[in-house]
C-alpha cells in the first residue's frame, strides 16, 4: 500500500510492526512481520537509512508517519502535476497548429458531443483486451446509461478499469450505475479529482477532450493514435490508478475471520473512496443517521478515534484485504 512512497512490501511490514509495538527489539519485530531475524535486520537497516525508524540501545521506534511520509506524498503529487502540465502543453501545441501532420495523422480532432459519443462507442466495440477511463463529473458526451457497448465488451472478456471522481459518484443515480458496472466485471477506483476526461482502448487509441469544463460551444476531443503522446496518456492513467482508492461493493462477506457483514464491507469501501454520508445512505437504502451510527459502531470495534484513524485501522486489521478485486485489477 505504501509502494508509491518507495517502500517495498518487506519494508512496509517491518515499519508497521515497529509502529504497532511502539518500542521493540529486532526479535519482536521479526515475529510481528513474520520473517526471520536476519531478514528483518537488513530491512531495519534500510528503514534507518530512510529515517523512518530510530534505534536506541537495541530498541527500535518509528518516526511519526505524517511528518516523514508527508514530503514523499508532496513529491509524488508534484510528479503528477508535471505529467498533467506536459499533456496540457502537447494539447496546446496541437490546437495552435504548431505541429504539421501528414495524411497518416497520429492525432485527429473530433467535434461535437454526438461525434465524441460515437467514437467512444466505436472504441469499445473494437476493443479486444482492455478499456480504461477517467470519469469526471458532468460528462460532455455520454452518461453511464448511454454506454451501450460496455456490457457487450465485458461479456466477450474485455477488461475494464475506471477511476471515478468523487463528485461524479455523488450525483443522483451515478453510484448505482457504477455498482452495476463493477458487478458486471469493471474494476473501479476513486479519487477526489482527476486532471482530464480520458478513454483508452487496448493502449493503441485514446480520446481526450480539448476543452475546459467552463468552455462554451461544441465540445472537441483529441483522438490519439499510437505515438509518444498516447504513451504519455497511458502513463498518466496508470499513475493516478496506483494512487486511487479501490471501490469494494460485492455482496460476499469475505473470509470467515473478517468480522464484517456485506453491508459493513460496502460501507467501509465507500467511506475510503471519499463518498459522502448522503450518497452512502442512498446506495445502502438507509438513512444518513443509520450510516453515521454504523460508522460509530465500526470505529468502536476498530478502536479508532476518528474516521481517518478508522481508515488506517481497516488496513491494519485486514478487513477488506481478502478481496482480490480490492488489491489489484483483473
From TrEMBL:
InterPro entries on file: Sig_transdc_resp-reg_C-effctor, TrmB-like, Tscrpt_reg_LuxR_C, Tscrpt_reg_TrmB_N, WH-like_DNA-bd_sf
HTH luxR-type domain ranges (all copies): 253-318
PROSITE patterns, A to Z: HTH_LUXR_2
GO biological process per UniProt: regulation of DNA-templated transcription
Family annotation (Gene3D superfamilies): Winged helix-like DNA-binding domain superfamily/Winged helix DNA-binding domain (1.10.10.10)
Annotated GO MF terms: DNA binding
Protein name: Transcriptional regulator
Natural source organism: Umezawaea tangerina
